[in-house]
Design brief:
Layout (H helix, E strand, L loop, with lengths): L11 E2 L4 H12 L8 H15 L6 H17 L11 E4 L10 E3 L2 H22 L5 H25 L13 H26 L3 H24 L5 H28 L3 H22 L4 H29 L24 H4 L22 H39 L3 H8 L6 H12 L2 H48 L5 H4 L1 H39 L2 H7 L11
Antiparallel strand pairs: 1-2, 2-3
Helix pairs in contact: 1-2, 2-3, 3-4, 4-5, 5-6, 6-7, 7-8, 8-9, 8-10, 9-10, 14-17, 15-17
């Protein structure tokens, strides 16, 4: 059944053993034996399995996601972000949801788990019975929590990933989703106010804020590559719908206060907003269409009545829109981050709500303190005695390189790690276009077209030759007196000229095809490299690895 609200879809992943990666890391980096943590290793795999399979809107799924997320935060203090395990996740939004993303990054794993937690809250809100007051309260609460998790993801988790976020977790996408959740939470509050029979002035303020939230969601959605056009049309339709609803309620308040001229002005503006909403509804589902049509019919009917009453009875001037007071806003919702997300470590313990912290005995606290003191003293020593002189020498070196005209070498020294932006951009373009396979497919299609064109050309040439032979035979049989028509090459001079012209085109095209095929063959290995992994490219590009200088 179509709904007039949206929910976040879940991100999907592959089953991997995080325990195996942690076990390998402990055995190579720590003095303690990994067998000391057998129970913890089994538990972390169990928590991940439960969390990534929580894909149905049920409150039990919230706890599974929160528990695993809390352990990932805790483990961030025990292990580096890259523990030697590629976490594979599929995007939930955009046009590449079937293309997996892989990162050896615990924070990438945490970001995906929290995205699914936000999705779980949004789906719980959608599954709530919004025909009752309690159901509306629950839905509003879930949407606020979803917005809070998205906000935490945007401000705390993604900036700390140390890698580029997935396309559907960039700032524009997360901003749009946060405003969308707030808009739907405010809409639930507005719906409850209507249900409870609040005053029209209060309902107008609530509706105006719903419109603002949807407008912000749509504005950010346009800047995102992952928010679909259907969602943007939905947000725009809702923005105009609630702008119309706000003006309609304000008009009802004017009627009650006997401001008949202002009532007409606000109803006219409401009708314009409703028409704007209807322009968007051809791209959205039936539930949104029905809401917009119902509102417009109601506004249109009231406007006819108000204009008639004012023209016949009250005769009050109708102010232009520019003179109407801007409606006040009443925001009743906010993005609320659950404590399980904002303060997960406080909820871990022997009797903690999110369970006991795993690997707590991996390294004694005193070692952490000693290591911290050592790091502070080391950094102070390095900064005071080495860094300043190194910076001066580096500046001198850069000036020398510039004077020698070596910008390429300078760039390699300034950016010794990672791929040059141009190479990374070309590689991403090749991957998105399906690389060498698309080129071969295009070449094969070209070959088919060439053969088809050549066959059509030969068929036409044969027809001209046949016609010329028949013409010559008739001329020999009847003589030039009886067969007085011009010879074929003269009668069809234009066609014969085109035969020569087209033959030249085909030969020229054939030579061009051979040249393209040769270039493709010469560069196929490099194209395949661009279509491969970043790691392969970094191994190939000399400046993407830090040079080791020897004497």
């Amino acid at each position: 059944m179509a709904s007039n609200i949206l929910h976040l879809p879940f991100r999907r992943t592959h089953n991997v053993s995080i325990a195996e990666a942690i076990k390998r890391y402990i055995s190579t980096k720590y003095d303690q034996h990994p067998d000391m943590f057998t129970t913890d290793l089994e538990q972390i795999d169990h928590l991940r399995h439960a969390a990534v399979h929580a894909l149905e809107p049920h409150t039990s799924g919230l706890r599974k996601l929160q528990q695993y997320a809390a352990q990932l935060v805790w483990m961030g203090a025990k292990f580096p972000v890259d523990i030697g395990l590629d976490f594979i996740w599929y995007p939930a939004l955009g046009y590449n949801t079937q293309r997996p993303l892989s990162q050896d990054n615990i924070r990438f794993e945490l970001a995906n788990i929290l995205f699914n937690l936000a999705a779980m809250y949004s789906q719980l809100a959608m599954s709530s019975n919004r025909s009752t007051s309690d159901g509306l309260k629950a839905a509003c609460n879930y949407f606020c929590l979803s917005a809070g998790v998205i906000s935490h993801l945007k401000t705390t988790i993604v900036p700390d990933m140390r890698t580029s976020p997935p396309e559907d977790m960039d700032t524009s996408t997360l901003e749009s989703l946060e405003y969308l959740m707030l808009a739907q939470a405010q809409e639930c509050f507005w719906q409850k106010a209507v249900k409870d029979g609040l005053k029209d002035a209060s309902i107008a303020k609530l509706a105006a804020k719903v419109s603002d939230f949807y407008n912000d969601a749509g504005d950010w959605g346009i800047k995102s590559d992952s928010i679909s056009s259907e969602w943007i049309h939905h947000m725009n339709a809702k923005h105009h719908h609630f702008a119309a609803a706000a003006q309609y309620r304000a008009a009802c308040d004017c009627l009650e206060k006997r401001k008949y001229g202002e009532e007409v002005a606000r109803l006219r503006d409401s009708l314009k907003c409703a028409d704007e909403a209807l322009r968007e509804t051809k791209y959205v589902n039936k539930a949104v269409q029905d809401d917009a049509n119902g509102l417009r019919a109601r506004v249109s009917e009231d406007l006819k009545r108000a204009e008639k009453d004012n023209d016949m009875i009250y005769l009050l001037p109708v102010p232009p829109k520019s003179e109407l007071k801007v409606l006040d806003r009443a925001s009743m919702v906010t993005a609320r981050v659950p404590k399980e997300v904002s303060e997960p470590l406080t909820m871990l313990g022997d009797h903690g709500e999110l369970g006991k912290p795993l690997f707590s005995k991996l390294v004694p606290y005193s070692v952490h303190v000693a290591a911290s003191i050592y790091v502070d003293r080391r950094d102070r020593l390095v900064n005071n005695t080495i860094v300043q002189e190194l910076e001066e020498l580096t500046a001198s070196m850069h000036e020398l390189l510039k004077s020698l005209g070596l910008p390429g070498s300078l760039q390699a020294l300034e950016k010794p790690l990672g791929l040059p932006p141009s190479v990374a951009s070309h590689a991403e373009e090749v991957r998105q276009m399906n690389g060498i396979y698309r080129l071969h497919s295009a070449m094969a299609d070209t070959e088919k077209l060439k053969n088809s064109d050549r066959a059509t050309y030969q068929e036409g040439v044969e027809m001209l030759r046949s016609e010329s032979s028949e013409d010559d035979a008739a001329r020999r049989r009847y003589g030039t007196d009886r067969w007085a028509r011009p010879p074929s090459n003269e009668a069809s001079r234009k066609l014969y000229a085109q035969v020569t012209e087209i033959d030249g085109y085909l030969k020229q095209a054939g030579n061009s095809d051979k040249l393209v095929q040769k270039k493709l063959k010469d560069n196929e290995a490099l194209i395949r490299l661009l279509a491969g992994t970043d790691r392969d490219l970094e191994d190939y590009v000399p400046s993407s690895r830090r040079a080791t200088m020897t004497t």
